[in-house]
Amino acid sequence: MKPKYYITTPIYYVNDVPHIGHAYTTLACDVLARWKRLDGYDVFFLTGTDEHGQKVEKAAETAGVDPQEFTDRVSVAFREMAVTMGISNDDFIRTTEARHKASVQELWKRLEASGDIYLGGYEGWYAVRDEAFYDEDELRTLPDGSKIAPSGAPVEWVVEPSYFFRLSAWQERLLAFYEANPGYIAPETRRNEVLSFVKGGLRDLSISRTSFTWGIPVPGDPKHIMYVWLDALQNYVSATGFPDPAAPRAAFWPADLHMVGKDILRFHAVYWPAFLMSAGLPTAKRVFAHGWWTIEGEKMSKSLGNVIAPADLVNTYGLDATRYFLLREVPFGNDGNFSRKALISRMNVELANDLGNLAQRSLSLIARNCEGKLPTAGPHTEEDATLLAAAAALPAQLRSRLDVQGFGDALEDVWKVIRAGNGYIDRQAPWALKKTDIARMGHVLRVLADVLRTVATVLQPVMPTSMAKMLDQLGVPETARDLAALATPLADGTPLPAPQGVFPRYVEEVG
Ligand code: MSP
Questions:
Q1: Cα distance from N-terminal residue to C-terminal residue, the chain
Q2: What are the E-state strand segments in 202-264?
């Protein structure tokens, strides 16, 4: 039986239209899901939309439609974003679905049964934009006297009856949990932030509201609507068919990785494991918090008018170049700046020149000089062996990079081999060998074809379409494109289709 791997994106609020921030989180998950499939895992990759709560209710009101109609309409935009970005998710969950409501109500009952829920009254600050409660000392006062949350969101004073979750009682157990699971929160700096937050003491968490109705009612007390984060976090469990232990995907829980942005780490690293432990459910294995994109040096915002839609990038630069750039440009975990100039430069230098030219030069020499057939491997010189060994080491290297979500490092590992391949072709000059040593020319071209095959295989998760084209041109059958297949050499003399450039240079239109 294949080992299982379960990966999740956050579920997106439907009050907003999808932008590259959302696309980024989903893309990172997609690359890992595809990588794990390539590495022989049975993968479950989940994404979806977060449709309840005051923020969505208000957005529907502003749009002048009923919240159900509004969410039906806007959640489609997130499905479309997944298609635009070439995302291979296995399921798309909406928190307004019946399967999710039943699962959340069961979670509530379990928390109640464990004695962690009590009825009280909430009096304090709430930011609708973040759907989060804040302590007075976390807020900043503006010159006009109004207060804002650390995220910049306006806050309002809320007084209402509320159920509470006894989070305060979980402080020590959470600290013990982090200690026992050092890989639970990544990167390290974020882990330290969470540890100091929890060490600072935890207050009980208000987990129901009575001032609006758009949400899942509390079992037995339907005036109360569950706190949208309790509702939302449970989506990850709902999608595995909870509470039915015989559901086809039941065995996927606990998730291997929750990918989140740094702004929502506290919910995933503090509240979520406490809820799960209280309900007697296993906790997820890891939460990775990535950084935020700014656009040409500025915060992305509707008011600045600089919000980038994923479709805009894909239509302008192509899907694979966009995917490559987003994961290559910034060390994963750090904040990054999006610039069109940087994207074009990576497209032209790394994709068109480094990789595209290496493939095009090698394949057109084979087409012209080897009757379009894969040349036979010959005795290896030291230089051949060095290059082949560097390529052969890639799957294991990438495995360890991607296990810690090091996308940039993984790509740099691959590019080292590509650059070495370019150095090799220049030094060996197979075009000159044609006249002096035709057998050696064939051997050199075969080394290059084998290196390109490995490179294209391991790059499939990042650039699925162009690497499929490259593998077609290398004569690699569709059934031999996973990591395990690399152990079996391609048959000598395999006929190759006419080579075609995979990565065109991007020429900016003037005017
Ligand atoms: N609905 C919650 C998540 C619930 S998960 C149980 C939510 N939704 S969101 O739509 O506001 O944000 C979803 C993700 O998009 C977050 O991980 C967030 O970090 C990410 N991004 C939003 N803007 C971003 C950038 N400018 N840059 C990178 N990621 C950003 O939070």
A1: 58
A2: 205-206, 208-209, 217-218, 221-226, 257-261
DSSP strands (E only) in 239-362: 257-261, 287-290, 293-295, 298-299, 336-338
How do residues 273-291 score in pLDDT, each as one tens digit? 999 999 999 999 999 999 9
What's the CA gap between 314 and 321, in Å, rounded? 8
Residue 25 Cα to ligand 1 midpoint, Å, equals: 8
Mutation choice for ligand 1 from 24, 151, 338, CB with most ligand atoms inside 8 A = 24
Listed in sequence order, the residues at least 6 apart from 496 whose beta carbon sits closer than 8 Å to its beta carbon are: 363, 366, 367, 372, 373, 374, 473, 474, 475
> CB of 308 within 8 A of CB of 300?
yes
Residue 410's domain comprises 340-487
Distances in Å between the Cα of 158 and the Cα atoms of 118, 267, 478 are 18, 20, 59
- Residue 310 Cα to ligand 1 middle (Å): 15
Establish whether residue 260 lines the binding site of ligand 1, counting it when its CB lies within 6 angstroms of any ligand atom.
yes
Whole-angstrom Cα distance, residue 259 to residue 124?
30
Q: How many domains are contained in the chain? A: 1
CATH number at residue 430: 1.10.730.10
Burial track 48-58 (b if 16+ CB lie within 10 A, e otherwise): bbbbbbbbbbb
For residue 396, is pLDDT > 90? yes
What tens digit of pLDDT does each residue of 326-343 get?
Answer: 999 999 999 999 999 999
- pLDDT tens profile 435-484: 999 999 999 999 999 999 999 999 999 999 999 999 999 999 999 999 99
Least confident of 110-119, 145-154, 191-200, 241-250: 145-154
| 446 within a domain of the structure (yes/no) | yes
Domain-located, residue 168: no
Please give the distance of CA 119 from its chain centroid, rounded to a whole number. Answer: 38
Choose the residue to mutate in 13, 22, 326 for probing ligand 1, maximizing ligand atoms within 8 Å of C-beta.
22
Q: How confident is the model at residue 303 (pLDDT cuts 50, 70, 90)?
A: confident
Would you state the pLDDT for residue 510? Answer: 62
Query: Does ligand 1 lie within 6 Å of residue 25's CB atom?
Result: yes
Closest alpha carbon to 364 in 321, 424, 425, 414: 425
Lowest mean pLDDT among 9-18, 214-223, 249-258, 360-369: 9-18
pTM here? 0.96
Asked whether residue 21 is assigned to any structural domain, the reply reads no
Kindly state whether residue 208 falls inside one of the protein's structural domains: no
pLDDT at 384: 98
Please compute the mean of the pLDDT values over residues 386-409 and round it to a whole number.
98
Q: Which two tokens stand for residue 507?
A: 């020429």
Closest CA to 486 of 400, 394, 406: 394
User: Which whole-number Å values give the CA distances from 163 to 205, 219, 409, 428, in the listed order?
Assistant: 8, 12, 46, 73
Distance in angstroms (rounded) separating the CA atoms of residues 255 and 264? 17
